[in-house]
Known about the structure:
This protein is an alpha/beta fold. The chain contains seven helices and 13 strands. The chain has a single domain, classed as 4-Layer Sandwich (Metallo-beta-lactamase, Chain A), CATH 3.60.15.10. It has helices spanning 47-56, 73-79, 91-94, 155-163, 173-178, 182-194, 212-219; strands spanning 3-6, 9-14, 17-18, 21-22, 25-31, 37-40, 59-64, 84-87, 102-103, 116-121, 129-134, 139-141, 199-201.
Amino acid sequence: MLEPFAEDVWIAARPLRFFGVEVGTRMTVVRLRDGGLFVHSPVALDLPTRHAIDALGPVTAIVAPTLFHHLYVAEWALAYPSASLSACPGLDKKRKDVAWSRVLGDGPEDEWNGALEQTFFGALPMQNEVVFFHRKTRTLISSDLIFNLASHSSGLTRAVAFLIGHRKPGPTLLERIMVKDRLAARDQIGRMIAWDAVRIVLAHGDVIASNGSAIIREGYHWLADPERPVAR
């Protein structure tokens, strides 16, 4: 079921196993200025979810923000044929079965310009995530930018998180290894920090209700150098 998270922002969490480990996943829904709904990283569209969505307003934009968060896009497209379908870069080639309206870039589309900002985290091509920011509520909306599994209710999940160097909210050791261009990553993360987010919605683990920008800065401190710090 959808839960209110901030004004005009709702979330829905679902169980999800990755290689046998429970990591969970989460959808975010934002009501745009014209009343339409922006659906980020959609989860399975069961009947209760559809009823809850339809009670909020018309779905006008469906977004698959990373190369890993796209499983249910096709069923949402079927249910809401008038909504636009947006893919992160590269997903249009991976999911050729979906009639994408566009591939997302580094700036907001006209549909959500003024309500949401965005940055393409292209320095991490394993994910190719497009990260969003809801300025009205200072909410950063992401899927894989930040993980928060160290305090997960599952002992197995906590153990795996520990093994991959995940002790607190932030990226895992895998993200550190897979960043291809640290200079570009520094710029991209710096833009996100400059948004000065209070809250962070993320897919894997508990959401973050305060100190959002500080958590991103701390999580990606390894990108900084004395000459050019992450946050400018």
